[in-house]
Amino acid sequence: MKLSAPIFRLKYEAKRMARAEGIKLHEAQARIARREGFSAWSLLAARAQEARPARAVLRELNNGDLVLVAARPGEGKTLLSLGLAAEAIAAGRRAYVFSLEETEDALRHRYARMGGGDGPLALDTSDHIDAAHIVSRLEGSAPGTLAVVDYLQLLDQRRDSPELNDQVARLSAFARRSGTIIACISQIDRRFEESTRPRPGLADLRLPNPLDLGHFAKACFLAGGEIDLVRL
Questions:
Q1: What percent of the chain has pLDDT over 90?
Q2: What is the dihedral of CA 163, 168, 174, 176, to 10 degrees?
Q3: What number is the average pLDDT over the span 188-195?
Q4: How far apart are CA 103 and CA 56, in angstroms?
Q5: Would you say residue 119 has pLDDT above 70?
Q6: Peptide bond into 151 cis (omega under 30)
Q7: DSSP calls for 35-104
Q8: Which pTM value belongs to this model?
């Protein structure tokens, strides 16, 4: 049975319902559980734990993989990527998030809302993020360390940054050499919304600058709550 929304959103809805209607939180949770088709909130929570998409995706990733995580806005690519970091930490690994898109406070808030723990999540939101910066931060990391790059199309935004293809080639080579897993969040062209396909593919990536997609080992496409993980 598929939930109508991620568990953290259902928890937030229950809190709002409890405040708005002056009822106990557990009563609001029970009401939402019944709406979702479960007789109790505990059963809903157990189902959500089993169906954690980030956990399933992480199991399919190998040390040394450079991975695309691509979707249109609002489809959950950042949420999935933060979930990968949370799952890596839960498994005893280190996790990094390099973001040229969001502030550290915003990322920590999103991470906390999705249930991320207090583990060693390293956040870097500096203006100097590019492949060289990422490699320097990750150098010496243990195999299996996971890094998220938010996002691919911003890596070469500075005039003094190397071309995007050169940076991605460097990240790919470093991942293979070090055994780290690097997940690059990527935009999808808005033209995909005019198509009838259920999920986007490589041809739908928004690439203002040339990029050899052969640098990537896998790609994860999201749309409509579904995830398609493909080997490249």
A1: 71
A2: -150
A3: 92
A4: 28
A5: no
A6: yes
A7: HTT-SSHHHHHHHHHHT-HHHHHHHT--TT-EEEEEE-TTSSHHHHHHHHHHHHHHTT--EEEEESSS-H
A8: 0.80
Strand ranges of the sheet holding 66-71, from the earlier edge strand across to the other edge: 121-124, 95-99, 146-150, 181-187, 66-71, 218-223, 226-231
**Rounded mean pLDDT of the chain?**
91
If we measure between CA atoms, which residue out of 63, 60, 62 comes closest to residue 80? 60
What mean pLDDT do residues 64-85 have?
Answer: 94
Task: Report the SS3 class of residue 217.
Answer: coil
Percentage, residues of the chain above pLDDT 70: 95
How far apart (Å, rounded) are the C-alpha atoms in residues 61 and 88? 11
- Cα–Cα dist 70/78, whole Å: 9
For the chain, how many residues are written? 232
What are the tokens at 118? 């207090």
Tokens matching residue 117: 């723990």
Q: Which amino acid is at 164?
A: L
pLDDT at 8: 67
Angle at 136 between CA 84 and CA 220, to 5 degrees: 25
| Mean pLDDT computed over 129-144 | 97
Confidence (pLDDT) at 170: 98
Name the pairing type of β-strands 95-99 and 121-124: parallel
